[in-house]
Amino acid sequence: MKSNARNSLAMAGAALLALTALTACGGGTENQTSAAAQQPAANAASGSPSATAATLSSGEVSVRADNSLGDVVVDGKGMSVYVFAKDTKPGSSSCDGECAAQWPPVPAGEAKAAKGINQELLGSITRTDGSKQLTLAGKPLYYYAKDTKPGDVNGQGVKGAWYASAPDGWKAGVKRPALGVLNDPKLGMVLQDKDGRTLYLFTKDQPWPMKTACDATCLQKWTPTAPVSAADAKAAGLDPKALFTFTTPDGTRQEAFNCWPAYTFKGDTRPGDINGQNVGGVWFAIKQSITIDQGKTVPAAKG
Predict the structure, then answer these.
(1) Which residue, among 263, 288, 298, 292, has the nearest Cα to 188 in the 3D structure?
(2) Can you tell me the distance from the alpha carbon of 125 to that of 83, in angstroms, rounded to the nearest whole number?
(3) One digit per residue, pLDDT tens: the chain, 303 residues?
(4) In the chain, how many H helices and how many E strands?
(5) Cα-based distances in Å from 80 to 24, 52, 106, 131
(6) Closest to 232 in 3D by CA, of 164, 187, 176, 179
(7) How far apart (Å, rounded) are the C-alpha atoms in residues 202 and 2?
(8) ω before 140 within 30° of 0 (cis)?
(9) Dist CA 182 CA 168 (whole Å)
(10) Which residues touch 28 (CB under 8 Å, ≥6 apart)?
């Protein structure tokens, strides 16, 4: 009898150990269901974006030419990514809960910039659940749950607030302002023209009275910036008094900021490029914050 009792206890103990091991390794159906229920809302959305988001950490971010929207940003699998017009507070997302189920945040992971994207514009924010979300020029990036295959842009214009992302975080398919602002992680807020090209100043120019030192050879790489209006300046967060339009020797009307003539660089091929920064140690992007003192303060963004 004692031997039978010991055998029964041993068998019960073995069964308990097996059950414990099964539970600890996640082998039970109930345990698998529980684990899935604990996934963040962003990964619980239906459709392929959740699977894409899960693998982006080892992928790339690049640009795809869309027939109607122009250049749009896509992940390593070709899925479109979006920006949210209501994301106006730096360093945070305005899309949580049910919103994040429809618009899963693109995880930061170790995403790298590929063709058409400036690596320096990639960054991340920490969401309320502690996860890291990828940003482009400070703009949080999202997928759309109703995009099911590469090339889909079903989220474009939804509720007048969601847009496929342009290469610099601007809203793809939406006309740019005459004077724009790029949030560069290293240089800060710098000015752009109507095509999203970075504006630069040339430290060899004379600010007051204004005189350009960019000769014919120089002009093969640097293009004078067209004038903008006071309303354009206000829309970009500038005091209109910062504008000083002047006429160059060849009769071109060129815009200047605090008396420093502005140019674009032909080496910048897409919005968000800043390839002209510090060229020859004399060319610098023009920062948004400008002191108005007739050129005494140079509005150069030097990082």
Answers:
(1) 288
(2) 14
(3) 444 444 443 444 443 333 333 333 233 333 332 322 223 333 333 334 443 444 444 368 999 999 999 999 999 999 999 999 999 999 999 999 999 999 999 999 888 999 899 999 999 999 999 999 999 999 999 999 999 999 999 999 999 999 999 999 999 999 999 999 999 999 999 999 999 999 999 999 999 999 999 999 999 999 999 999 999 999 999 999 999 999 988 898 999 999 999 999 999 999 999 999 999 999 999 999 999 999 999 999 997
(4) 6, 19
(5) 38, 10, 10, 21
(6) 179
(7) 97
(8) no
(9) 7
(10) 22
- Report the Cα 244 to chain-centroid distance in Å: 31
Containing 133, the helix (H) or strand (E) segment is: strand 132-136
Beta strand segments in the chain, E: 60-66, 70-74, 82-84, 112-113, 122-126, 132-136, 139-140, 162-164, 180-184, 188-192, 200-202, 222-224, 246-247, 253-254, 256-257, 260-261, 263-265, 283-286, 300-301
* pTM of the model as a whole: 0.79
Report the C-alpha gap between 274 and 190 in whole angstroms: 10
Q: How is residue 165 written in tokens?
A: 């992302």
CA 226 to chain centre: 26
Beta bridge pairs of residue 189: 183
Report how far Cα 129 is from the mean position of its chain's Cα atoms.
21
Q: Report H helices in the chain.
A: 2-24, 29-37, 41-44, 49-55, 98-102, 230-235
| H or E stretch covering 259 | none
How far is residue 61's CA from residue 82's CA, in Å, rounded to a whole number? Answer: 12
- As given in the structure block, the two tokens for residue 237 are 């967060």
First-residue to last-residue Cα distance in the chain = 85
